[in-house]
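Open question from group meeting: does this chain pack into something compact, or does most of it stay loose? Before anyone orders reagents, we agreed to write out a predicted structure and look at it together. Recording both the input and the output here so the notebook holds the full record.
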Amino acid sequence: MKNNHLNIAEENRMWDSVIRARNLRKKYRGFELTVPQLELPKGFATALIGENGAGKTTLLNILTGIRLDFKGEIRYFDEENRGIDSRVQERIGYTGPGSYFLPQWSIRQVEEISEILFENFHQDRFRTLCRDLGLGEGMGAYTKEVRKLSDGSRMKLMLAAVLARDTALLVLDEPASPLDPLMRDKLCDLIREYLEQGEGERSVFFSTHNIADMENVTDYAVILEHGSIVEEGVVEDLKEKYVLVKGEERDAEQAGKILFSMNRSAYGFQGICLSRNLDQLAGMDVAVETPSLSQICVAVMKANTKLRL
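Structure tokens returned:
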């Protein structure tokens, strides 16, 4: 069931915002990112979730100052300054896909250049992180070139470099994608540790197209589909707004008119429903459970995708 009128988060927040954006717009041929309002809560880990091509990287690039060719207004750290400058950039740590470091750089050169670029970079912390993340230690490890590292090791190197700085906001573009399951679990630990050490003054904004591995570290979720935010909210609030419904096959046809998405088998069906619509299932033999964030995201994405499902 399509639903193009999902509630976007309230105008008035109950928390401080690390980023406030208004009327963001970036247009490409055949695609347009349009974000009337976005407020990222301070002290939270916020996940930006969406299909490939939904506009996640474009939005992150705008918020971090990588792209400047857009329309709209951005305010950082609840201050009066508007737009990104060197002072704001010093407080933001960013990792992204592709050629983040030059391929011929060694790990030692990454360390040296980071010291030059950022006043808040700590060499000892960088080396400890490299060791803890399995990149090795000593001269042999530090002479390795970026191009000779695996995709997962390059992401580890990016994480070590950004976490070696004193920042107030981490913006991570698909950080889990090249990592193995064990390292994804470690990534969640690193994010939670970063937030806890900040005592409410640090925030994380990361993108993903598969929330399952990152759900246990996600406090707030923003779902993006073909350039528009279609849902957002505190994870616990979303789990009250939506419910997981399971029922008998004989009721599947009728229930499908009410559910966002539904999977059917010979044994029955299950799908996601808005809590407020549960009364429309009266008379059916259904069981109701609390959904996972992953189940909510898939349902909302299915309700708004342009794919033919």
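Observations to bring back to the group:
The mean pLDDT is 89.
The first strand starts at residue 17 and ends at 28.
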